[in-house]
Design brief:
By secondary structure, this protein is mainly alpha-helical. The protein is built from nine helices and no strands. Helix content is 82%, strand content 0%. The protein starts with a helix and ends with a helix. The mean pLDDT is 84.
Amino acid sequence: MIYWRLFTSFLKISAVGFGGGYAMLSMVLSVSKNLGLTVDQFTDLTALDLMIPGPIAVNSATYVGYLIAGILGSLIATLAVCIPSFIYVPIALRYEQIIKNNPLFKFVMDTIKASVVGLIIYASITIIFGIILVDNVSWQQVSEAPFSVISPFALVVFIASAYVQIRWRRINPIFLIIVAGILGYLIG
């Protein structure tokens, strides 16, 4: 049953998803592929995650759940991604003094931090490729020949936006999003 798959998939993501939303995006990508989302839908998901308020994991669960099974699917996926936090946080608060001074716990957390960096890098690369790909691309096309499905216009906009943001850090990213949207509308 699709509702059960959505529930268990997002429950697993949230239960082991350390490092926040960006680290979880690689796991969301894997679940999305298994549930039948397209490259374009995943790209839309990452764009929405960055533009709308709220935690990335919750936004992703809501979006994927809605695409797969409508409003009920979005409610189920959102609930599933929130449940582990309702369990972990009270336990962590209850045993905070014991946990924070435990050398084994510190070692485990340092190890988890290293893997989180890897997950964030993987998610970043996935987002970059998702942004610069041409429309209506399958996951198979991306894995077989990733450079043949790149949109030159999107690549130029991506590089220009990254350059402007790095060069002039005071420029608001929302301004860059609006400019890119206007360019996409005018040229596309």
